[in-house]
Amino acid sequence: MTVLEFLVPCLGAFVAGIGFSFIYNIHGKNIVISALCGTFAYAAYLVFGLFTASTFAPYFVAGVFIGVYSEVAAYIFHTPVTVYLMPGIVPLVPGFTIYKTMEAALHGNITGFGSGVVDTLKIAGAISLGMILASYFVKAFKNIAQGKWKDA
Question: Is the pLDDT of residue 118 over 80?
């Protein structure tokens, strides 16, 4: 992968993050901060994708990054987590996979349709599982650091 093949999709992720920040009515410095969430998550997806042939793992790592980034940014800037979560997810949405799945369904290709559905659900599951686990561990770490964690 060349530097250009890495930077162009990351720039596209940043622009998409800015666009969806306007859709979600995000204002001020939070526009850039939320767009950077998607940019860094897509960069993590690209980098981790170089080291594995799996479709699940790179999306999972990107989901973990989105979760951690959103929780930390929300804590630092005193805003809701969703301000950073929603624009962060957008660059990772498997739009082309969903398109190919629907195309296979319209052409009567049951095998292609089934494969596309499985791939789409796998990607969506990886992103959401990564975000859920990251959110849980960040909140648990925050509680431990504040002394709110009680031993059973």
Answer: yes
CB 55 within 8 A of CB 76: no
Instruction: Locate 14 and state its tokens.
Output: 């940043």
Q: What radius of gyration do the chain's Cα atoms show?
A: 17
CA distance 15 to 99: 21
Structure tokens at 44: 């993590």
**Alpha-carbon torsion 30, 34, 35, 40, what sign?**
positive
Q: Is the pTM of the predicted complex or chain greater than 0.85? A: yes
The rounded percent of the chain whose pLDDT value lies above 90 is 86
CA distances from 71 to 11, 103, 115, 120, 148 (A): 23, 37, 34, 26, 18
Q: How many other CB atoms are there within 10 angstroms of residue 133's CB atom?
A: 15
